[in-house]
Amino acid sequence: MSTGSPSFGDRFAAPKELRLAGRFRVNKETPLPPLGGCPAFGASDILSPGANYVALAPLFPSAALQSYAELRHRALLPILAHDEQEGALWGLTSRPPGPPLSASLSLWSESQIIAGIVRPLAALLQYVQSKGLTLRSIRPDNIFIGPSAHQVTLGPLGLALPAFDQPLVFESLASAVCAPAARGQGSIADDVFSLGVLVLTLCLGELPLSHLSDEAILAQRFEAGTADAYMRGRVIHSGLRSLLQAMLSDDPSQRPAPDDLISMEPSKLFSVRLDKRSRSPLALGDVRVRTIRALAWHGARRPEHFIDLLRRHVIDAWLIQEIDQSALAQKIEQTSAALGPAGSSDPEAAVMTLAIHTLDPDAPLFSGGQWFWPDALPAMLAQEALQSVQTNAPRIILPMASQLLDQDVATRTTSNRIETQIFSLAQIARRSGRRGISRVTRLIYDTNPWQFCLSPLCAEQRFCSPLAVMQRLDEDKAAREVEAKPSTREGLLDQQLRAFFESVCARRNVSPPQSASASGVPPWLADIMLLELVQRRITTQPCQGISHFVLPAMLEELKAWRSHQVRKQHEENLKQAANLGDLHQMLAIIEDADTLRSDREAAHHAEEELTATAAELEWESHQQPDMERRDRETSEFIATLSGIGLALASCAIELCG
């Protein structure tokens, strides 16, 4: 079938050159080392020959990309432009001033660390904090050494998931226990911790605990505390030891603020309150814990043992006798009171989650067997969706997120930060007007206008433009219509496509149509109604592939018309609209309520006339014998009268004659 429209290959084949902001030429044939968590390519300015830049192809840009793009600081590579080209998002930044710090880790002096690392990055932290943002990317391979001695610059922000590429050793415990995608936006205190690890790395000339696995690093940090685990037995500049004790504190409230670091001087002292340690460890399965924070973490990993200790009131007794925390012990006792006897069907998972956050209010949420910050849920869902496209991996986050949004937050956690994040997500989900899995999928796009469509149809191309996604779908349906005649009684859109288009409509104040289950229409028709709205209000481009794909199903809908003449006319009009790729006109034809009502009224009148005629014929058939008898009698009477008349006439003639 020829639709007369340009093919997808014609419309989206890579142009001879890709330009950002109309002037920066991108050479995708010259890939560069990743930068800012993104694949990078060489770029040049056509208005300034010789000026070199870096083009970035982000996979999971931040929802706050626009705010990050406005940042300008001498210690930060700026986002000079961000633009949609070839249907995908691209960013542009300056070339790094030199090699990354990771290229040659070495020992720095105390004065070099303070002047070249602490003060400039603290000033950057102060600036970013004033904008309500965080860095979440302080690590050696994202910090570049400039031509001046020990002057550093951080890579661009906002083009990758926060802390996704951070080594575990650079993350505070509240972030390190989470999977990379589950770390969330974090806080400035998290950035101060990462900066502290960077300072320690330059003091040591290597990463702390570099010989251990991530699991072993976490175990040591919970056992001894991060600062002690990182610095024990190591030679540290005496003037920086107090600073590092504060920056590496596992209590975020004890870490210094950026203002304190900007005024940093050699041998400046910081006071830190150490976590209380038990005199005798608490046995939790095969481990022994001595701190409250370690108990919360190991308890989440060993739920059966943790619940057993809660039920037997061992934990609250230990808190009183060993940690001298009677108030906390009372809260734990109240929490454990919600547990029934062993083997009961009480909600142990909810009680365990509440107990964990009672023990450590700074901990992330523990649910579904994993730690995460709720504000990271959209990113977790997006990453899981992309992995399912690439590897057919099972979906775990999706049902967990759906359950989380349905629960009462107040019954699970004492953390205001977690409550606020879940409440915000729940508000967004409610505004979508969807239910079940659909509203959870919408979170991916409703929370981030820069997120590309994660449908298998276009995930590889990173299409975030509605026009690009629509044209890719149109090309796909055109190919399917040529190859076979699949049943359009199923939906035309997969879950990701539907959520993407609905979110695009909602962001532009265009109310998307109801779902198939809510409206009662067939799934394919509900999808066409959504696509028609996108075509008419947003993309305004013809869709011959889609229109011809659904043409057979729409022709079936015309059987509702009773008039053969009207139906034939609508069929012709429908085919013409399909050739034009006009979904609005096609829907108008099959949903022509006035014509359909007139057609049904005419059919009703015709049926009434047929009924009346049939009744009259039936009445006549019943009356026929009587009519024949009356006709016979009438004929006989007329014949008798005629005979009498003839006889009288004959007599009169004879008498007169």
3D structure, described in words:
With 657 residues, this protein is α+β, with helices and mostly antiparallel strands. Helix 10 crosses helix 11 and helix 10 packs antiparallel against helix 14. Among the domains are: 84 residues, Phosphorylase Kinase, domain 1 (2-Layer Sandwich), CATH 3.30.200.20; 96 residues, no CATH class; 27 residues. The protein is elongated. The relative contact order is 0.07.
Write the layout of secondary structure elements.
Elements lengths: L7 H5 L5 E3 L3 E12 L2 E8 L6 E5 L8 H5 L9 E7 L2 E7 L15 H21 L12 E3 L6 E3 L18 H4 L11 H17 L9 H11 L1 H6 L6 H10 L10 H5 L19 E3 L2 E3 L2 H10 L1 H9 L2 H9 L3 H11 L11 H12 L5 E3 L2 E3 L4 H15 L5 H10 L9 H16 L4 H11 L19 H18 L11 H13 L8 H4 L3 H17 L4 H14 L6 H17 L2 H8 L2 H64 L1
Antiparallel strand pairs: 1-2, 2-3, 3-4, 4-6, 5-6, 7-8, 9-10, 11-12
Helix pairs in contact: 3-5, 10-11, 10-14, 12-13, 13-14, 15-18, 16-18, 17-18, 18-20, 19-23, 20-22, 23-24, 24-25
